[in-house]
Nucleoside diphosphate kinase B (Periophthalmus magnuspinnatus), 154 residues
Amino acid sequence: HANCTMERTFVAVKPDGVQRGLCGDIIHRFEKRGFKLVAAKFIKASEDFMKTHYLDLKDMPFYGGLCKYMSSGPVFAMVWEGENIVKLGRMMLGETNPADSKPGSIRGDLCINIGRNIIHGSDTLENAKREVELWFKPEEFVTYTSCFQPFLYE
């Protein structure tokens, strides 16, 4: 697979997803797709940390409430690696509003309300890089070769 570029993306199960016990299902979906988990932690982030994370939304009317909500309980933060993962990861999540999400997507299958859409995933390569660096230190990554690699990539 010398000609394919591996990307990393940041994915977090939000407090509602954690409370509903959906972390395992979400991990399973990314694993089944063939993506590789390279970092993960279970954390209760501060409101200030969430304000930094969602800085690009600071002018939106829901910004304050979102940051307060995201710091209200534990989140399961992960970094996944794979070819074209930012785009494919967003497709797996479904639309921001679960009502617009197709069945088969995480939000299309598992939630109803936009304010409780259970999961966050980076939307661009630039945001993925920024979010990965914000949430994880370099020493928190695990480098390994998946035994599935020859069966996933040419």
Summary: Helices lie at 15-19, 23-33, 47-53, 63-70, 85-93, 106-110, 125-135, 149-152.
